[in-house]
Amino acid sequence: LAKKEGRNNFQFFDESLENQTERYMLIQHGLHNALKRGELAIHYQPKYALDQGNIVGAEALLRWFSPELGTVSPAEFIPIAEETGFIVDIGCWLIERVCQTMNHWRKQGAVLAPVAINISPIQFHRGNLYKTLSRAIADHAIDPALIQIELTEGVVMNRQQSTIELLHSIKSLGVAISIDDFGTGYSSLSYLRHLPIDEIKIDRSFIMEITDAGSLTDTRLTAIPLAVIDLAKNLNIKLVAEGVETEVQSNFLRENGCFIIQGYWFSKPVDEAAMLGFWRRA
Ligand code: C2E
Ligand code: MG
Ligand code: MG
Ligand code: MG
């Protein structure tokens, strides 16, 4: 009924607590059906090497088109799936589906590079991740060196023995470990020395600060990307810049020694078929 009264009213009602709760419930229930009904899809965003001029990897990103709600962003539905624990089922499906797709790509003649899978902290701690990964890799005859997992700093920061052991067992499978949204979590960096980390991804919020107008004169805006570039180099950890949208950002990164970029400037996330096209040209 709010809709009939016009856009402004609708927005007003939409922001009410009642509507927020209702949307939360719709998403929560919708997600359970989404898996069964095949409403979830996976898009892939290439990682591009500025120095080599080719694609050196891709990140798998969940997409949900709900018949009732339309397109729902993972930024909205993943936190809800985490609260209910359903993220574990979604994550298992995703790992299986990515490996299946990679096998299909290979049969289509693609020359693959590592594909990164985002792992929720809930899935990491409760999801039987080692078994899920090793089974999917074996079932689809995937070279484990072509699989990478992305974790956030919160996961690797805690010094629980179980975390350290799981990281090492995943490494022993041959799967690489990447730290996502680097710089936005906690301030301790010591885990980088102690844990088997292969790659870090500078968060988009830092890359956004690199603009023609500001950053080339205001060194505070580029201080963090430059420090992270140094850090990665000295620790001998691979570095990726995420959310690279402009030529200015891309040039700045190349000139300062960060060669792998992911972002709209090279490509938005694309569907399986379009990603196959990228692999074929790689
Ligand atoms: P993320 O892992 O940091 O993924 C990068 C996000 O930045 C993606 O948003 C991507 O579409 C977006 N992005 C990439 N390049 C650019 C750019 O140049 N400009 C801008 N403005 N954005 C860019 P997306 O796909 O909406 O995903 C949001 C977040 O949801 C992801 O952030 C990740 O934390 C989570 N997510 C997505 N898929 C999965 C999944 O399969 N499992 C889990 N656990 N989380 C996922
Ligand atoms: Mg990610
Ligand atoms: Mg990221
Ligand atoms: Mg991010």
Derived from helix and strand composition plus strand pairing, the structural class reads alpha/beta
Radius of gyration: 20 Å
Largest sheet: 8 strands, mixed, barrel
> Given the structure, what is the number of helices?
13
Assess the beta-strand content as a share of residues: 15-25%
Which bin fits the share of residues in helices? 40-55%
Model regions low in confidence, pLDDT < 50 over at least 5 residues: 1-9
- The strands making up the biggest β-sheet line up spatially as 1-2-4-5-6-7-8-9
- What is the molecular shape? globular
Distance between the termini: 52 Å
Q: In total, how many beta strands?
A: 9
Domain EAL: 24-282
Organism: Methylomonas subterranea
Keywords: Phosphoprotein
Protein name: EAL domain-containing protein
Q: Can you give a write-up of this model?
A:
It comes from Methylomonas subterranea. This is EAL domain-containing protein. Residues 24-282 form the EAL domain. With 282 residues, the protein is an alpha/beta fold. It has 13 helices and 9 strands. It has helices spanning 7-14, 17-37, 74-84, 87-107, 121-126, 129-139, 153-157, 161-173, 191-194, 204-207, 220-235, 247-255, 272-281; strands at 40-49, 54-66, 70-72, 115-118, 147-152, 176-182, 199-202, 238-242, 260-262. The chain has an 8-stranded mixed β-barrel, surrounded by 6 helices. α2 (17-37) crosses α3 and α4 runs parallel beside α6. The longest helix has 21 residues, at 17-37. It is globular, with a radius of gyration of 20 Å. The N and C termini lie far apart (52 Å). The relative contact order is 0.12. Mean pLDDT is 92; it is low at 1-9. Bound molecules: ligand C2E and magnesium ion (3 copies). One magnesium ion binds at residues 180-181, 201, 242. The site of one magnesium ion has 4 residues, from β6.
